[in-house]
Design goal:
Largest sheet of chain A: none
Protein name (chain A): Sugar ABC transporter permease
CATH superfamily of the domain at 66-232 in chain A: MetI-like
CATH class of the largest domain in chain B: Alpha Beta
Structural class of chain B: alpha+beta
Number of helices of chain A: 13
Pfam family, one (chain A): BPD_transp_1
Strand content of chain A: under 5%
Membrane topology (chain A): Multi-pass membrane protein
Number of strands of chain A: 0
CATH class of the domain at 66-232 in chain A: Mainly Alpha
Order of helices and strands of chain A: HHHHHHHHHHHHH
Radius of gyration of chain B: 24 Å
Distance between the termini of chain A: 22 Å
Shape of chain B: globular
Family (chain A): Belongs to the binding-protein-dependent transport system permease family.
Helix content of chain B: 25-40%
Number of helices of chain B: 9
Strand content of chain B: 25-35%
Largest sheet of chain B: 6 strands, mixed
CATH topology of the domain at 66-232 in chain A: MetI-like fold
Main location (chain A): membrane
Largest interface: A-B, 17 and 24 residues
Helix content of chain A: over 70%
CATH architecture of the largest domain in chain B: 3-Layer(aba) Sandwich
Distance between the termini of chain B: 41 Å
Number of strands of chain B: 18
Oligomer: heterodimer
CATH architecture of the domain at 66-232 in chain A: Orthogonal Bundle
CATH superfamily of the largest domain in chain B: P-loop containing nucleotide triphosphate hydrolases
Structural class of chain A: mainly alpha
Strand order of the largest sheet of chain B: 6-7-8-3-9-10
Amino acid sequence: MARKVTTRRKLVMTAIAWVLGIMIFFPILWTFLTSFKTEADAIASPPQFLFFHWTLENYHEVQSRSDYFKHFSNSVIISFGSTLIGLIIAIPSAWAMAFAPTKKTKDVLMWMLSTKMMPPVGALIPIYLLFQSFGLLDSRIGLVMVLTLINLPIIVWMLYTYFKEIPGEILEAARMDGASLMKEIAYVLTPMAVPGIASTLLLNIILAWNEAFWTLNLTASKAAPLTTFIASYSSPEGLFYAKLSAASTMAIAPILILGWFSQKQLVRGLTFGAVK
Amino acid sequence: MGSISLQKVSKVFGEAKVIPSIDLDINNGEFVVFVGPSGCGKSTLLRLIAGLEDVSGGKVVIDGKDATDAAPSERGLAMVFQSYALYPHMSVRNNIAFPLKMAGMPKEEIDKKVSDAARVLNLTDYLERKPRQLSGGQRQRVAIGRAIVRQPSAFLFDEPLSNLDAALRVNMRLEISELHQQLKTTMIYVTHDQVEAMTMADKIVVLNRGNIEQVGSPLELYRSPRNLFVAGFIGSPKMNLISGDYARAQNAATIGIRPEHVSLSTSDGDWRGTVTVAEHLGSDTFLHVNADGVGPITVRAGGEFGVKHGDTVFITPDKSRMHRFDDKGLAIPAAA
């Protein structure tokens, strides 16, 4: 018997959902609004919500002081690059583990996941020294390598759970129907695997885009992505909230737009394994 | 076209010997059913024939050619899976057309064959739908359609009806039998349901723990089971198996008598017993009787035999239809 949902219950639930949603969204909204304030209005007390002097001055200032597009292109290269390389390595490995598992497969998966349990700072010194000796500090290629390795376990896990959902019998049916390995991959496997690969791709681009620990520690200026761009407004000359907000808005806008247009894939990606 | 021969075929998974060694000949055009309890190796045997599993030893010969090392796609066999295994991203039309496309057939010919198959299987109105928009029975038909379009030398069915409800199962059973009459193509059908085996097969292969217990027509197996396993497996309700003094008196370790070969009376007979359960099916009545000195016996009586729990009845086995088994469980041939 289905549980009876009363109107009151529905109203309460909706209200709770809205409150939670607004709580989560509020800091982003506040940052967005602050980016249009003057520095004085930004720290005014009591804070002003909408009725302040709207200005684009912060954006001009930020762009003139540091080159947004350089950071933007660094972010794009680092996040897309690391995700693509990650996928190239992860697709065959996840494939092998999903369709030809051995006794050790579960252990290998666990081991990969366990690398995510260590705080990254624990590996900072050795990696920093390695980067130094190989001349990789402040290079995009170095960052692509590090982020690929950092996100690889997640990519493999996600793909593994997706591939697991593809029933083996369908692949066997294709073989019985006369498909060669190449045709099996082209006509049956790929169409069934693409949604999973797309969600993994999206989620990992976002993770790599937002990654701040390694990008802040391993870059100075040349290879610095948007995370560094934001951070550069938080300290040198004291805090400038309005400019910091403008920089943040500019940094998160591209990924927010990407996320907006791929919501459906993304939700599936974030709940991977949970939804059949 | 469509003869299959297994020669000393064996299959080992790790340490487990799933199939020790099997020899079997399947003639062209036969409807062969592999039947047995779950885990008896029947599906494995089918997959060995299909080429989806590699044999650990022995040979698989299809149409006189050694196909032991041939890939599944090269064996010219079509398979219908228990889960139907339809391609979820393709329409019904493309699902059925897939094997033809793989064979590189020209488009007009594919279209014609697909619409022919769809007509035979009542799928014409559903050709543009996706598998998820179909009912279980329709999906099963699509799976069969995909198998028949390319005119394989043999069809392999792996428990194709076990996901359907009871009424639909009876229907599809008929449809598959009719299909076999029409196509006259070799069919190998795996099931754990002895009723499906009895009703559909030309030849039944009874498997138990990877060994063939007996091969024969449904009536051969019914009339003369070679051992206790086959005796207990074929027939519904199950054959009554009686051991003890009564069996010893007949020079056997176990006596088998089918429920339908026992006559029933309310006044006199060989054994006196008490009815524990009476199952009224309308056409038949199955009585579970606790017979004095013999034990529980199932008896098939006429549809309107009016007895109920606790009644006393007298039962007499038909001695000419009795099966005798020795202490190894093997049937003792009737003295001529």
